[in-house]
Amino acid sequence: MSITYHERPGVYSDYDASSVTATGTGAKVVGLIGTSEAAAGLYTVTDYRDGAAVFGEDSQLGTMLKLAYENGAATVLACPVAADA
Fold first, then answer.
1. What percentage of residues in the chain have a pLDDT greater than 70?
2. Which region, left, alpha or beta, applies to residue 70 given φ > 0 means left and ψ of -120 to 50 means alpha?
3. Which of 55, 52, 82 is nearest to 69 (CA)?
4. Alpha-carbon distance 3 to 72, whole Å?
5. What SS3 string covers 39-67?
6. In this predicted model, what pLDDT tens digit does every residue of 37-73 receive, in sequence order?
7. Phi/psi at 69 (nearest 5 deg)?
8. Pairwise CA distance, residues 53 & 66, whole Å
């Protein structure tokens, strides 16, 4: 959806609006990188519960997984990294 506003002669503003939470038939794939105690590598996660079991609910990656699934993600590609000491 595009909206154009006429502010004064010769000056226009154009806005594009979209939503991650909009329903549709397309599968949403999200990539996340965050801290976790899990072994390094690329994980394909299709369910929050499975991801939380691997990365931990209280880890940074676990929190991001929860937000991704609440906002309509179908699949998450997650890459855990160690926290800097």
1. 68
2. alpha
3. 52
4. 25
5. CCCCEEECCHHHHHHHHCCCCHHHHHHHH
6. 889 899 999 999 999 999 999 999 999 999 999 988 8
7. -70, -30
8. 12
